[in-house]
Write a structure and sequence with these properties.
Rossmann fold; 19% strand; five-stranded parallel beta sheet; elongated; 2 domains; alpha/beta; seven-stranded mixed beta sheet
Length: 329
């Protein structure tokens, strides 16, 4: 016969065990590090992050419930980025999302084991980040923003909208990982369109001011603004200088044109950040980054600013307007 106090003790023990069983069934909290080379205040960067977060949630990863996301913002400051790279690796995350080579290079120095999904690295192979695009090997994989032939499109667009351009300065950041394939593509096309191309490295606002001002002293000039954390962070300054000196300029990203730039041709990055969430999900579920191929964009968009066209005294060809994905008036 089971006595009443034995039943109570049995029930009490079972009740005490229930919380332990429930705790055992809870999924372990995973940790994602995010290191952006741009500033937290940059609205375009925030749009990318929202796309990444939304896609993660659709895949079942909810911040605070089963995943902890640690964000750091470099603001194109190399010293700050290095500090954050060390800090994030020290947190022992399961995977890190990293924007541009300014971020990936210091992370690569900090760890060869923590999986890293990179974004916006133009040439990850020549930059030494992966062994191959199809099978990256090691602890890195990710998404590249351009096919190299895109760079020739920038020059062709510049000549199409401003046929009189005979000199072109490519504005880039010399600290960025090698972008030689892009430059080589531009150099190959330049003679056929009658343009002399020079490479103009800039690292800060003072560099940008002096470089563009000096280039503008010559005639028949135009700009190709190569995307990187410096040109992105100081895009309004570059756009204002192009306007001041009446220099037709081609950019890689739509938001340059939305801010007053003339014309852009480049990828839709929000889509790539959604895809990056898929890679993060696969790594969290056990796949190795070295087995995931580096991916290029599947869509490019052409954006034109008609107000800037008129301010520069240009006539936008009707054939170009017909091809545009968006015309800002």
């Amino acid at each position: 016969m089971i006595r009443r106090r034995d039943v109570i003790a049995l029930l009490g023990g079972a009740a005490a065990a229930w919380p332990l069983a429930a705790m055992a069934q809870q999924p372990a909290m995973r940790r994602i590090g995010v290191l952006m080379s741009t500033a937290e205040s940059d609205p375009e960067t925030q749009r990318y992050i929202r796309s990444f977060q939304q896609s993660l949630q659709e895949l079942g990863w909810v911040h605070g419930r089963n995943v902890q996301i640690e964000y750091r913002w470099g603001g194109a400051n190399l010293d700050r980025i290095q500090i954050y790279a060390t800090e994030l690796v020290g947190l022992k995350p399961d995977v890190i999302l990293a924007q541009t080579s300014l971020v990936v290079a210091p992370l690569q120095r900090e760890t060869n084991t923590v999986p890293i999904v990179f974004m916006q690295i133009v040439d990850p192979l020549e930059g030494g980040f992966v062994a191959s695009l199809a099978r990256p090997g090691g602890n890195l994989t990710g998404f590249t923003p351009f096919e190299f032939s895109t760079a020739t499109k920038w020059l062709e667009l510049l000549k199409e909208v401003a046929p009189g351009v005979a000199r072109v300065a490519t504005i880039f950041n010399p600290v960025q990982s090698p972008q030689l394939a892009q430059f080589r593509a531009i150099d190959r096309v330049a003679p056929s369109v009658g343009v002399l191309v020079t490479r103009t490295g800039v690292s800060d606002p003072a560099d940008i001011e002096s470089a563009v001002s000096a280039f503008a002293h010559g005639s028949n000039g135009g700009l190709i603004v190569v995307p990187n954390p410096v040109t992105i962070a100081h895009r309004r300054q570059i756009i204002a200088l192009a306007d001041r000196y009446r220099l037709p300029a081609v950019y890689a990203y739509r938001y340059f044109v939305a801010d007053g730039g003339l014309i852009s041709y480049g990828p839709h990055f929000a889509d790539q950040y959604r895809q990056a969430a898929g890679y993060v999900d696969r790594i969290l579920k056990g796949e190795k980054p070295g087995d995931l191929p580096v991916q290029a964009p599947i869509k490019y968009e052409l954006v034109i600013n008609l107000k800037t066209t008129k301010a520069l005294g240009l006539e936008m060809p009707s054939t170009l307007l017909a091809r545009a994905d968006e015309v800002i008036e």
